[in-house]
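testing teh design pipeline on a random one, pls ignore if ur not involved
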């Protein structure tokens, strides 16, 4: 992150300072008004940057304020249970971020001064803080002259220098060479804003761009083709039978293993099936494996689909009335009218709501 200039074709120093001035003036005039923009508390900046990883600003706006009310500082977050943390993150997705943030808070609170480290290198040692997040926090909260290049910034740089398929090392070098030494935090946020509002993916609004006169892709007429889209491996398709075991108006939820997809969240017992499997029989089999005696045959609930980054899951939920089931420390019988107090991923909450509708109560 500390390479001061690009290896090849660095822009002349005079142009770098012109580009910085033009973009920062534009930022000062028209930066987006966001609740974390005026924060000086490094913890608040950290929370916003972690929430913004792979998540749209509009979505984060619905969570940021509530999170800070519940966990106003690192100490409060560190003292919270993992379930409380996951519950507060419920619906924001990529739950590993919440677990990492929680662990980071606990590690920081073990430090003698219990405060967030102030350098990029130290921040990188905390769980969940990659190059981008550490760079953003170090520059915005502590004024360190370091770049923060997310996907938006990568796109801006690729266009500014007409780089067809920028590699991570090129992005790092180029981003570092441009950071304004006087206002590194504002610079990084200005670049993010430019990518999010003007230099947008499909049709960049070059007419209103403050750095258009230096933009090589615009001059070459290649802006819309930069950067070329990486060929992505298609997501794996999977079909899962979900068994909503139901007894006396309550349904059984189980905690998922802490590692892996949706780790630590609560979910209905489920099983991946192949095309030859008979879904109702699989639902009954799940109940049998949990030591439950069926009170009636499994009844289908509305199927639905959910896309994860590398996985496209199709859920086939069944309501499975049972007479009994073995107790287990990682399971809970909950009232679908709730509130359950448990952190459920979005797809599971939909199933809980469908169960509530089916048995005549509304899920909460
Ligand atoms: Fe992006 Fe167009 Fe600005 Fe170039 S001129 S940086 S392509 S918005």
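output:
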């Amino acid at each position: 992150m500390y390479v001061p200039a690009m290896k090849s074709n660095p822009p002349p120093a005079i142009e770098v300072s012109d580009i910085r001035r033009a973009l920062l003036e534009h930022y000062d005039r028209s930066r987006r008004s966001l609740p974390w923009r005026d924060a000086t508390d490094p913890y608040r900046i950290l929370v916003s940057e972690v929430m913004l990883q792979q998540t749209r600003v509009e979505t984060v706006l619905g969570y940021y304020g509530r999170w800070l009310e519940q966990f106003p500082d690192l100490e409060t977050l560190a003292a919270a249970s993992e379930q409380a943390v996951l519950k507060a993150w419920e619906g924001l997705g990529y739950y590993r971020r919440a677990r990492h943030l929680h662990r980071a808070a606990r590690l920081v609170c073990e430090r003698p001064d219990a405060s967030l480290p102030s350098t990029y290198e130290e921040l990188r040692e905390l769980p969940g803080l990659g190059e981008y997040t550490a760079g953003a926090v170090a520059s915005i909260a502590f004024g360190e002259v370091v770049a923060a290049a997310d996907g938006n910034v990568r796109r801006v740089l690729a266009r500014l220098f007409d780089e067809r398929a920028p590699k991570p090392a090129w992005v790092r070098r180029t981003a570092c060479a441009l950071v304004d030494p006087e206002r590194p935090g504002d610079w990084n946020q200005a670049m993010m804003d430019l990518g999010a509002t003007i230099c947008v993916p499909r049709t960049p609004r070059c007419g209103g761009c403050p750095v258009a006169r230096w933009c090589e892709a615009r001059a070459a007429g290649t802006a819309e083709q930069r950067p070329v889209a990486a060929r992505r491996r298609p997501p794996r398709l999977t079909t899962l039978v979900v068994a909503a075991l139901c007894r006396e108006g309550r349904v059984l939820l189980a905690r998922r293993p802490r590692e892996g997809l949706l780790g630590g969240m609560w979910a209905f017992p489920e099983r991946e099936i192949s095309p030859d499997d008979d879904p109702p029989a699989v639902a009954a089999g799940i109940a049998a494996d949990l030591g439950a005696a069926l009170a009636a045959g499994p009844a289908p609930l509305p199927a639905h689909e959910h896309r994860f980054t590398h996985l496209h899951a199709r859920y086939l939920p069944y309501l499975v009335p049972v007479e009994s089931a073995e107790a287990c420390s990682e399971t809970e019988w909950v009232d679908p009218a709730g509130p359950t107090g448990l952190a459920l991923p979005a797809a599971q909450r939909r199933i809980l709501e469908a169960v509530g509708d089916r048995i005549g109560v509304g899920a909460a």
